[in-house]
Model the fold of this input.
Amino acid sequence: MAKIAAVIASTHHPFYYRASTWTGADRPPFADEWAAKIGAFRETLTRARPDLLVMVGSDHFHQLWLDNMPQFLIGKAPYYDANYYNEEREFGLPRMFLRGDEELSAYLLRQGIDAGFDLAFSNELRVDHSITCPLITLRPQADLPIVPIYTNIFAPPLPQPWRFVDLGKTIRRLVESWPSDKRVAIIGTGHLSLELGGPRQFGPHGPDPEFDRKAVEWIASGDLKSALAEVSLDSLWLPGNATHGFMDFMLMMGVAGEDVAADYSDSLDLFHTMEAYFTWYPAEAS
Amino acid sequence: MSKYLLNKFLFTIDRDPELVERYRNDPRGTVEWWESERAGVILNCPEAEQSTWPAFTPAEREALAAHDYVKLFELGAHNFLLLTLFIAVFERDYEEPLAFQREFAARLSHWSLPYPDIGT
Done:
């Protein structure tokens, strides 16, 4: 059976690529500290020696639209082109080209549907910065095949938080039952408190530092019980109007396991967001 | 109320570099053209198979034509689409990084929770 080499959860900040590659007067003052933290975080994936990456993210109104909006979708394609004109325009992100792993995609779709998730699928998916930002931070050579999994954290009505957790638990179980000798890293990115297109956007910190402090503690300690007790679709509006992306962190907590503390945990208080980075190494992965 | 159509306008302009420039330079003309020619196009259907019913309310039409992102926020346009498109339209007019984004926030500072419903 396949082995889970690492479980990784982080924020995905589209400005990282530009901040870390700009030089001279354009380079922001926080770039060196940020790049150093990303370097250490990247090492946590490198040392896991993965063969392929399952990547959980969310389309930001690029390919998926309100005339036909899936809640959970798995890509099943031999290749994925990546990033869009408006991400190039706003964040300076490069166009990327990624290989897929159709065998694992097909397995997750068939078994996931049989496990009670009526998953949508896409045979031609152009992925966006929710998938490419973690590649840029964790595997910039982008040399491993991926299986992209998209969640709807964006266009109400959304699935409930517990459903994200259950999907994460299911993904974990299915990858571990996949008849393969591959080492699979499961990587998912979301947000802590975040405001976009609202009065609290782009302040000196994330819009709700207290939520961020609690959320980092829940993730680092695997405290799903507290997260599920305090987080609801309604409550997530309070820390910031884009905070529903935290449900992708909850999905990854489901992958990592209840009360399983992260082996690596770090964070960085940036302008307008708290960035956070977590890695778990399942015991059987060594 | 046609929040879906507001979002469809923002979405289809934002993804096309030529339309971003057209909307920046001639917002009223772009909105009139788009509503008559593009509003009914179903994005994954042949253009001949259009929807026949989508139309803006007068308030929506005027807010789009006036680049009035505060009013669009209040009408329930999706916050992400609003931010992304209006950064493309206005950020170049500001010298400091994030200055437009901060002005956007300041112009909405009279709002507290709950914000207008973005559900469609």
